[in-house]
Amino acid sequence: MKIIIIGLGNFGGHLAEKLAQRGNEVIGVDSSIDKVNAMKDKLTHAICLNATDQMALSNLPLKNSDIVMVCIGENEGANIIVTAILKNIGVNRLISRAINPLHESVLQALGVHEIVHPEAETAERWAKKLCLEGVLNSFDLNKNYSIVEVEVPKQYVGKTYEDAAFKERYNVTVLTIIKHSEQSSFLGKNKIVSNVEGAPDPNRIIAADDVLVVFGENNDLQKFVRG
Amino acid sequence: MKIIIIGLGNFGGHLAEKLAQRGNEVIGVDSSIDKVNAMKDKLTHAICLNATDQMALSNLPLKNSDIVMVCIGENEGANIIVTAILKNIGVNRLISRAINPLHESVLQALGVHEIVHPEAETAERWAKKLCLEGVLNSFDLNKNYSIVEVEVPKQYVGKTYEDAAFKERYNVTVLTIIKHSEQSSFLGKNKIVSNVEGAPDPNRIIAADDVLVVFGENNDLQKFVRG
Ligand SMILES: Nc1ncnc2c1ncn2[C@@H]1O[C@H](COP(=O)(O)OP(=O)(O)OP(=O)(O)O)[C@@H](O)[C@H]1O
Ligand SMILES: Nc1ncnc2c1ncn2[C@@H]1O[C@H](COP(=O)(O)OP(=O)(O)OP(=O)(O)O)[C@@H](O)[C@H]1O
């Protein structure tokens, strides 16, 4: 895809880099020449310009881009002005970053429906992660159902999966087992490699380092995680 | 849990609020009285102090807390100093925010192993989301396997799940179907309610608004999503 990222701060810069790594054509824009130079070799193009300058902004291939994203952070005013200019010119898909609820309502009033909240979205994930001990990762399907990646509760180590009877006991479904192992690369550094092993054989013995991917209702998952 | 959050900016503030909503005892700390006042009613306690002041910091119930998190952002120096003070005093679990790779290596040198990167973590999720069209949500199990929430590919609407034969055709497993529907609350506002319906009956007819939760290897998922 052809993507224009305006604002190459911590969020915009990382996003531009990741999108470029995934094979997209990414143009990065920033008013700071240092930020532009830091991204020069990682993107298709890195351009230094002040995005609130409508003349300068319209020289970009805006109409030709699949996505234009405004990632300017602290400077709320600039973020809003740039968003308004882009809304006026008309782009295929516009996504803007919001700094706070008031800023967000201004963006919505401008007709922007895809809004990113980098700090708040990470805060939400970490709040969930910190509250579910032993849960390495989780994925909400809806308000009541999730899929979680969790270390097997200690009291079942040594039993077979059939004896543990997680479905009968907790009403949760084990989708697959993941094994994490340390592999040393030829540079001598250790990295964690994880192997997805598939749904457990009923006769398989539960090992202490089995990581389970489990699906179920949140209340049932909580009881299962707490053992 | 008892949690102390130092730095109530966009990230720290949201995190403190979310943790408090989940029933934890949260003490929020910030050097700005405005930030402290904004959080007063949402947390157990909100305290105004300069966290780089070791005397002031040690008056907090540090040893008694399960988690202490340094969420100071822009002020790299302050973040490092506060982290160093906490490492010295010794807390049960210390998590610090890193602003950039150099800052992160300093934190690691100080012995901090749990590090948050709010902007970079959100950038990663959005890069993935933008690249997988039609994928509403995804959950990495490891480098090669994921679980994705995706709208059913249009060409299968009207067929039965058995005829569609997703497992045979793409080597992906449909874990469950989710139905999203609009419900109007008595305030007249519409909200989206999603119903997790479980694994599909082979004779069930695929509807255009079926949302599938699918598990498989990333390359197979890509082919499936692209239809
Ligand atoms: N008018 C503008 N035109 C182009 N770029 C801009 C403009 N205003 C700000 N920027 C750039 O946007 C980037 C991100 O914005 P800023 O640094 O203000 O926010 P931030 O909250 O620190 O961002 P992040 O959290 O992503 O690091 C910066 O690199 C800045 O140079
Ligand atoms: N020495 C300190 N003691 C206590 N609080 C501090 C100190 N230094 C900074 N803070 C607070 O930390 C909070 C977050 O830091 P800051 O605003 O510098 O970073 P930020 O990148 O804008 O954060 P965010 O992205 O979370 O909004 C601010 O509310 C600030 O008042």
What's a concise summary of this model?
The structure is a homodimer of 227-residue chains. By secondary structure, chain A is of the alpha/beta class. Chain A is 34% helix and 30% strand.
Structure, described:
Two copies of one chain form a homodimer. In chain A, the strands form two sheets. A six-stranded parallel sheet of chain A has the order 3-2-1-4-5-6, with helices on both faces. Chain A has a five-stranded antiparallel sheet with strand order 7-8-11-9-10. Chain A is an alpha/beta fold and 227 residues long. Chain A has nine helices and eleven strands. In chain A, 34% of the residues lie in helices and 30% in strands. Chain A has two domains: 2-119, Rossmann fold, CATH 3.40.50.720; 127-226, Regulator of K+ conductance, C-terminal domain (Alpha-Beta Plaits), CATH 3.30.70.1450. The first copy, chain A, is elongated and about 70 Å long. The longest helix of chain A has 14 residues, at 76-89. Chains A and B meet through helix 1, helix 6, strand 7, strand 8 and strand 9 of A and helix 1, helix 6, strand 7, strand 8 and strand 9 of B. One adenosine-5'-triphosphate is lined by residues 6-12, 29-32, 35, 50-52, 72-75, 78 of chain B. The site of one adenosine-5'-triphosphate has 20 residues of chain B, from helix 1 and strand 2.
